Amino acid sequence: MTNPNRALVLVDVQQQYFSGPLEIQYPAHTESLPRITAAIDAATEAGVPVVVVQHSGGPTAPVFNPTTPEYALHPDVQSRRQDDWKRVTKQFGSVFAGTDLLAWLRERDVDTITLVGYMTNNCIIASAAEAETHAIAVEVLSDATGAISIANAAGQADAETVHRTLMAVLHSNFASVATTDRWVAALGTDQSLAGDDLVTSAQAGAERFPVS
C-alpha cells in the first residue's frame, strides 16, 4: 500500500508499567519509552493523528485504578499531549472493544494504525488481531512496545522470548512489524511498511525447523 492514511495509537503508556509486577522487561522501558516518544514527535511533525489510550480497571481494581498515580500517562507522553489527540479509555485488551475508536477512524478515513506501547503480550496483540476484522491495516513498532515474563499453569516464558515470538506471530499475519526508525522513514515517503503472510512464514519456518 502506498500513501497509507495512518493514525498513531499509544497503547497504555501508563505509570503502571514502569514499576511493580507489570514493569515492562523486554525491551526494557528505558529503551522502549524513548522510541515511543520518537514516534510521537515524528507523527506530530508529519501531521499524523495521535490516539492516546489508557486502560481502566475501575475504582476498586488492584491495577489500572483511575484513582491511583499508576493510572497516569508517563510524564514523557503527558508532556507531549496536544488538544487534538483522540482520547480513549478502555476496559478490555483491544483498543476497539467497548470504545468509539473504530468510528473515529472511519470518520477520518484512517486505513492503517501504528501501535506502540504496552504490553506486547496483551493489548498490542489483542488490538492487532481485532483490527483485522475491521479491515484496518496494522503496523507494530518492535522497539516501541514491550513485554513481561510470564509463568502460569500452562507454562512459562521470559520477556525476551515472549516479545520476540509475538513479533514474529504478528508479522506472519496480523501486522507489519518494524523498528521506529524504519517507520519514521516510511512516513517521509508515504509508504506502508512491508508485511508478510502466514504461508510464507510457515514455509520459512519449516525450512528453519524441519520435522525430524
Entry keywords:
Rossmann fold, two-stranded antiparallel sheet, alpha/beta, 7 helices
Please sum up the structure shown.
With 212 residues, this protein is α/β, with parallel strands linked by helices.
Describe this structure in words.
- This protein has 212 residues and is an alpha/beta fold.
- The chain has one domain (6-208): Isochorismatase-like (Rossmann fold).
- The chain is 38% helix and 20% strand.
- The chain is built from seven helices and eight strands, in the order E-H-E-H-E-H-E-H-E-E-E-H-E-H-H.
- The strands form two sheets. It has a six-stranded parallel sheet, sandwiched between helices. The protein has a two-stranded antiparallel ribbon with strand order 6-7.
- Helix 1 (29-46) packs parallel to helix 6 (180-189).
- The longest helix is centred in the N-terminal third of the chain and has 18 residues, at 29-46.
- It is globular and about 55 Å long.
- It starts with 5 loop residues before the first strand and ends with a helix.
Write the layout of secondary structure elements.
Blueprint: E1 6-11, H1 29-46, E2 50-55, H2 75-78, E3 86-90, H3 101-107, E4 112-118, H4 120-133, E5 137-146, E6 150-152, E7 155-157, H5 159-174, E8 176-178, H6 180-189, H7 198-208
Parallel strand pairs: 1-2, 1-4, 2-3, 4-5, 5-8
Antiparallel strand pairs: 6-7
Helix pairs in contact: 1-6, 4-5
How many discrete domains? 1
**Unreliably modeled segments:** none
Computed over alpha carbons, the radius of gyration is 17 Å
Number of strands: 8
Question: Going across the major beta sheet, what is the strand order?
Answer: 3-2-1-4-5-8
Can you say what the CATH homologous superfamily is? Isochorismatase-like
Indicate the overall shape: globular
- Using the coordinates shown, work out and report the CATH topology: Rossmann fold
Residue share in helices?
Answer: 25-40%
The structural class is alpha/beta
Output the number of helix runs: 7
Which CATH top level class fits?
Answer: Alpha Beta
